[in-house]
Design goal:
Layout: H1 12-25, H2 30-35, H3 39-52, H4 60-74, H5 77-89, H6 94-97, H7 112-125, H8 133-143, H9 145-167
Length: 186
């Protein structure tokens, strides 16, 4: 149950956001509705997301796996639901997407670099962060410095998203269900 109303004030900003969200995702995203109670926070968040979408030094699939590993570690059901849908939309293998929360038990599904990226995302998400010099050095060597910085920033942003959504009590909106083939269990 959300800890804040998902009915923000009806403003031009919220009407535009709702239109765009329905057009892009098929429904209005609950985080947008929750943040709509503070237009400055919402606009700042939207600007940040638009700028982040233009980053291109890190392989997008690696970034997505890192984001999902972070969301799984925080246990943000909204982020996991949306992340599954987003991975499906970008063409990531469903067997990878659904195994991210328990990636250590399914190492055979992932490449060595994907495993390192998810390990790093989880280590960054710990309170206190548990990133080791060895892990960082290996990722810098394999990704390069620009991609490593981008990976770090993407995981940090997902920490922010997941913690906001979890604290506000936002849960699954049914995005992952839209990815399932009727009559087939994942």
């Amino acid at each position: 149950m959300p800890r804040i109303s998902l009915t923000p004030p009806r403003t031009l900003l919220m009407r535009v956001l709702s239109w765009y969200s329905r057009r892009t995702y098929g429904k209005v995203l609950d985080p947008g509705l929750a943040l709509g109670h503070n237009p400055r926070v919402l606009v700042s968040y939207l600007r940040l997301e638009r700028r982040v979408a233009k980053w291109n030094r890190l392989d997008a699939d690696l970034g997505h796996l890192a984001v999902m590993a972070c969301a799984a570690r925080i246990n943000c059901s909204w982020c996991m639901d949306f992340g599954y849908w987003e991975g499906h939309e970008r063409g990531l293998a469903p067997e990878k997407i659904k195994r991210v929360p328990r990636w250590r038990e399914h190492r055979e599904v992932f490449t060595g670099l994907e495993l390192l990226v998810m390990e790093y995302a989880e280590a960054m998400t710990e309170t206190e962060p548990a990133v080791t010099d060895e892990l960082a050095a290996e990722l810098v060597a394999r990704l390069g410095e620009e991609a490593f910085v981008e990976l770090t920033a993407v995981v940090s942003l997902e920490n922010w998203r997941s913690r906001i959504n979890s604290a506000l009590g936002l849960t699954s909106q049914g995005f992952s269900e839209a990815c399932q083939v009727p009559g087939v269990r994942a």
